[in-house]
Amino acid sequence: MSKKYFVALKLLLLFLALFLLPIKNFGQCAGLDTNTSVCDIPNLASKTVDLFGLLDGNPITGGTWTDDDLSQGLDNATGILNAQLIRKSGFYRFTYTVSGVAGCTDNSATITVAIGGYPGVSGPTGAACTDASAYDLFHVFNGAFLSPQSNGKWYNNTKASPVEGSVINPKDLGVGTYQFTYSFPAIGDCAGPVSSTVFVTVYRAPEAGLPDNMQLCDSDDLSIYSNLDLNSRLSGEDANGEWTDNENTGEITSIKDHFIDVQKIYNTLGEGTYSFTYTVSNTPHPICKIDLATVRIRIEKRIDLRGATLVVSSDICELDMLRATYSAKLTSGAQVIPDGQYNITYKISGPTSATNTELLTINNGSVTFSLPSIFFQKVGEFKIEITEFTSFTTEGACNTIIDDLSDVLTIHPIPKLDSAKIKINPVCQNKSTVVQITGASSLPNGMYSIIYKLTGANNTSEQAVLIAVVNGAASFTIPSALTANDGNTLVAITNITNTLVGCTNAVNVSGNMVVNPLPNSVDIKIEIKDYCLNESVPVLISGLGTLKDITISYTISGSNLATVQTVALAVSNGKGSFIIPQNLLINTGATRVTITKVTNNETTCDIVPTGLFDDFLINLIPIAPTTSPQIFCKSDGATVANLVPNGTQYKWYDSAIASTPLSVSTLLLSGNYYVKEIALSGGCASSGSLSIVTINDIPAPVLKLKGQDFCGINNPTIADLSNNTNASASIVWYDAQDNGNQLTNETLLQDNAIYYGFDFSTTTNCFSNDVLIAKVSLTNCSTSEYADFFIPDGFSPNGDGTNDTYAIPDIDFLYPDYTLEIYNRYGNLMFKGNKNKPDWDGKNSDSKIIDGVAPNGVYFYVVHFNKDSRPPLQGRLYLNR
């Protein structure tokens, strides 16, 4: 909207107001409030805006102007506004005031001016460097034109992001060209938004890199840096820089040189700080600054305090601590501490703890310094220890070597035994005893000298002895020379002295000492019998009198050796016994047990007897016999006497734990038997050896039904009898059950003879233990089968061994009850026979007529069969000598 249009509109409105309102004079001497806009700020006209001419109403001249919002653009005297002097767009109020005019009821008017935004005129592209963290975008505007107002808004077009204020960070943006817009919104009647566009190029700054300084100790291996590349001590540097030797060590010999010899620098110049600067120029962008990076190499000398000493003031007594002063002296060890100033930190620990650091000056390898007495106001041990020792100029390249560099200051209390008690255990005559001191709570740990005396059963003058006190407790020994008499003795401590500082005090602490009598050893005896190796060996001690509970100490010598052994014994009726452990008696032979001490456990009193020993034998145990399984036949009737080994030195047992040996006549059974060898000397038995005994047996043969009956005419043999059993191939026959003769298979059977048959196993080579008893009959003949049998008709009893007797063959088998009668021709009975008297020898000794010798001639026989009702048979026979 133009200014003329705006003025015309105001006049029209004023006219209407005057026309419509009642005519009345308001007395507006300064004019009416109004508004206006200044939009074209660069226009020269904006430098001379007459505000008075812009007031509405009828202002009168001669008034004064005020710049209500401090725009800095108003000439208060003339009312001329220079909009170019106002550095921010916006609304500004200016007030015109008329004073001293009669009738002016409203003597001021305010004109509000809208100042349009002015973004300025951009100049050439701005330049910034990445070594800067701030760049003001207003630097880009052309200085030949009016500077832009300051309250616009910046926007980074390249990054598409607003800019806070007008300052950018080139380092954050990075290398590149960036476009920015500076804009203002519409203000009042001024069109908007208005803006300017500028460009800024960010150049990369020279980079000398980040230096990595070196701190080295002269004790380090500097040879590894004899060809040190200084470039390796930088990171992120440009490659076109040059090195400068700041200390003129002579190691940099050209602008391209970047290697140094640290070992050589130290050898030549010693400890110190050596710096080398790397310079990177700013070409081709002079806007950037030259960049420098300095590598600093610090070589320090290590301080070695090994062997150094710290000596603190002498110890004192408690009463002296309030007025005492304290100091400590530090003296070098093998390596002398260089002269100079050092920070020395020492720690105090003990009843009071503190740490203190002082700057001290070392001269000639030592220094003496005071210790504040405020730290030493209590009784006890104070350890003063140097924990840190550094040169005043050190940068920490070296660690000082500190071993245990300390000393102890002790403030000793006055020794007191006010709450102490004495305890003395009962002691034996002529034995030393320990006196226990307890409850000495006020007595610090340490060595003390005390004086004591004895009264009562034992009396002595004052005795001095050293004691070591730990946590309020101590002890000392009363020697055996002072306990010669049994009974009660009073022990009293009369004085105590701290041996470290000589602090002393009179005391009175006492206790009772009971002295017990010693046991009587006159009647004590020891008895040990002879035993076998590995058997328990009991020892009988007698003559112990009224003792009830004792401990025996003994040694073993001879074939067995053992140092002092102890065993506790309960005594009854003056006797006690114990078993010597088997591991102490591992050898056979003569061994001696010697009693070396007898202690009464009720009083702990003991004696050392002399010549109290006993000798005994440890007899050898034979080696267990060698055995093997043993097999017998039951029919043999084997006994223990048949077992192997045998002999008087061997004893057999029927179990592993049996103690009674078996009789040699004991009949063996199948099972386990154990044999031990009994030593002929000492009677010691070996361990038992197992022998498994097996008694083999087979059943007796069984005779078939009537298997014993035969017919003698068939001349049956033993083989025939065997065939009538269930063991025809293995049966063996004897003519007697015991000690009989074995019969062959060809042996002829005898009538009414008894035969004994045993079965035989070829597997076990055993006969059956039970026997088959067979009584043979040869009369099992059939008369029908043998009806015609031979009856001789003569014989010749002339003694030639042929046909000397007359007998009827086999008749006894067929007719076992037969009788034979022979008559002469006169009817005289010459012979009467039967089975038991079958043969007639041609004599008749019963005859009373003749001499008994039958003459040659004819004789007659009569056979009575006595069987099957067969009638007698008669016939004749001829006798021819």
Key terms:
elongated, 881 residues, six-stranded mixed β-sheet, mainly beta
Overview of the structural elements:
The protein is mainly beta and 881 residues long. Helices cover 5% and strands 39% of the residues. It has five helices and 61 strands. The strands form 16 sheets. Strands 40, 42, 43, 45, 46 and 47 form a six-stranded mixed beta sheet that branches. Strands 8-14-13-10-11 form a five-stranded mixed beta sheet. A five-stranded mixed beta sheet has the order 24-30-29-26-27, with no helix packed on it. Strand 54 and strand 55 form a beta hairpin. It is elongated and about 240 Å long. It starts with a helix and ends with a strand. Mean pLDDT is 90; it is low at 1-26.
Write a brief structural summary.
This protein is mainly β and 881 residues long. 5% of the residues lie in helices and 39% in strands.
User: How many DSSP H or I helices?
Assistant: 5
Query: Percentage of helical residues?
Result: under 10%
Q: Report the radius of gyration as a whole number of Å.
A: 75 Å
In terms of quaternary structure, the protein is single chain
> Main β-sheet: number of strands, strand sense, barrel status?
6 strands, mixed
Overall spatial form: elongated
Rounded mean pLDDT is: 90
Structural class: mainly beta
Cα distance, first to last residue?
212 Å
Low-pLDDT windows of residues: 1-26
Which band does the percent of strand residues land in? Answer: 35-45%
Q: Give a count of the beta strands, DSSP E runs of length 2 or more.
A: 61
